[in-house]
Amino acid sequence: MSAVEETRTEQEESVNAVLPILPLKETVVFPDSMTPLAIGQERSVKLIDEAVANEREIALVTTREGDDEEVHSADELYEIGTAAVIHKMIRVPDGTLRVLVQGLRRIRLTRLVQDDPYLVGEFEDVPDVIGREKEIDALARNVEALFSRIIGLVPYLPDELQLAAANAEDPSSLANLIATTMRLKTAEKQELLEEADVEARLRRLTVVLNRELEVLELGTKIQSQVQSEMESSQREYFLRQQMKAIQDELGEGDEQQAEMAELRAQIEEANLPEEADKQARRELDRLAKLPPAAAEYGVIRTYLEWILSLPWNTVTEDHLDLGEAREVLDEDHYDLEKVKERIIEHLAVSKLKDDLSGPILCFVGPPGVGKTSLGKSIARALGRKFVRISVGGVRDEAEIRGHRRTYIGALPGTIIRALRDAESKNPVFMIDEIDKMGSDWRGDPSSAMLEVLDPAQNSSFRDHYLDLPFDLSRVLFICTANQLETIPPPLLDRMEVIRLSGYTEDEKLGIAKRYLVPKQLEAHGLDDEQVSFSDKALRLVIREYTREAGVRNLDREIAAICRKAAAEIATGKRKRVRVDERRVRSWLGRARFAGEARKRTSDPGVATGLAVTPGGGDVLFIEATAMPGEGRLIVTGQLGEVMRESAQAALSWVRSHARDLGLDGDWFEGKDVHIHVPAGAVPKDGPSAGVAMSIALASLALVRPVSEDVAMTGEITLTGQVLPVGGVRDKVLAAQRAGVTTVVLPKENEGDLDDLPRDVRKTMNFVLADSIDEVIAAAFPDGKVLEFSSAARG
After folding, report:
1. Is residue 656 annotated as part of the catalytic site, yes or no?
2. How far apart are CA 312 and CA 272, in angstroms?
3. Overall pTM surpassing 0.70 (yes/no)
4. Is 73 assigned a catalytic role?
5. Of 688, 694, 699, 707, which residue is the catalytic one?
6. Of 117, 96, 89, residue with least CA distance to 40
7. List 371, 508, 684, 731, catalytic entry
8. Fewest C-beta in 10 Å: which of 399, 456, 615, 644?
9. Spatial CB neighbours of 711, under 8 Å, sequence gap ≥ 6
């Protein structure tokens, strides 16, 4: 007799009350069954090793809700489990085990005895309860019959199970065999295991088997219906083919032949380029050989329709009257003289060459300055069609080049689709937000744009869907962007950049009077007889209710005033409304922008800097403070690496010239310095804030506030020199909007003042600084702080 058989004989005589517990996930083991198990947890592997070594029985208990974590309490286990012995164990190279266990009898967990290194519990036997033998025998025969029917319907149940069920020793063993082999939910299997009454267990199993049999028979019925429908479709196809042959013999009209003839006629009339014509005729021949029901039929038909819908040879005649073009630009846009002049030059060259191909124009400027509307004006001046696409946020290269025809639902890219809509081979094509294209695993659309925007290549642009060369050389491409930094250099190299800076107050006033007010009056059902705006009212809106480079917010505020006026006129309170300063304040509420520079620079340690953002120029209030510490520099405000280095350079200069500033010893010794640049949520970078950081630190050390009406920009060196920066026009306009009257600029940026509007040069004071001591002299209200030594200047 084997050790396992001896163990089982001993267990039949006396119960082994304490057993190690192997928790099972989503598995229930029944008595009288052989079940393979995969063991992965470290504590379970140790349990199996010791059980095999000592030839001990183990308790197999299922965890509740299939929890994947280790079990440490009885509440996480079902109460009823199965005592079992291990017949075979195999070690897998990954450290896990594969074991074959045999269930012996049903047991109940009374309490946990041990938790480490694995669970051990006290158990008591739960013997079968046998009641009415005749009922049990009848139920067993019914269960066996249902199981035999299920075996005939389920592929995963072998026929040998019928013989095993027929040879079951008793009804309890039969129930255990069926519950083990059927794919039931864990909860249902556990309920069958917990049912000690054999009669009740067989009744419950009868319900489960009847349900499974009903589902299987329904599935078989559905499969039969599908097969029947497939045969019917095939039969219908053969009948249609026979009908077609009969119609051909009788000489009756064929719709498909008529359709082929119509497509062939369209190809003849389209006068396609040689390669496109050859491809169209090849695809038409393929289409004629396919039945209309074929999947490829619709794909080829759609492809031919796209070829025939494109303007291969359709062009509009250019109207190159430079005087009229200038009138159109002046009519649609206020000021922007340099931009208009550059556009007229472009048109003049095109008129002399009789060819509008040439550099790709790219309008760069903050939002709301008229980039998109300039493109419309150019199209109107030339008499061309205007199409616009926005590529902001586009990350899929197929959006530009299209999809291959092998994909379901494939379409040409946006370039070809826009030309189809324009119905012209030479439209004005505006590509908006080209600086906001992205890239990911679907490709890089900016790289796909390289061919589109290259005059040397786009004469044979090949879309993936068409797979035919299309001539884009006669298209006038105009791109718009808010900033150049995010445009890839190869793409930027193909474009001629025209910058549009922000508007001055006088320019905004002119735009409001000439365009915005008439537009909003018409939009609100009003006219200039009913509502009129004073210049002072418009200036008030510009100064105190908007602060932007463009005019979009100004347009919204004028719309808000028009709504208030429309309400008063519609209700009969007034027949005419004169919008003055008092009415603006009453309708728009308190001022949104007033005296910020004065408020922010009232304390020592704050200086007003200037920066250029995608939204135009802006002012930066650079703050500095000091506290007892170890001489560290703390820089905050989402600053880039270059700006952090500028802060370090500024601190080094101020510390090295502490005596020249009138400070005793090293004022910064034993102190941590913190420089902060609001707003902290906006990323900032660049070297042009170095001068402002130096002044903020000097103001902090001297305990003297910086002049409230001075803003500054410039890169600082360790020797105190002020280096030139970019974006002077945008920065000066931002200072003007913020109410600053004096701007400190690097000496080498003197030439940039010529780009400023005349009224700005008249109303603002400019200090051109070559060294930091000149900046300090302008930054503090009473002039120079001290006479700097030659060492300080050096």
Report:
1. no
2. 6
3. no
4. no
5. 688
6. 96
7. 731
8. 456
9. 597, 608, 609, 610, 619, 731, 735, 738, 740, 742, 743, 744
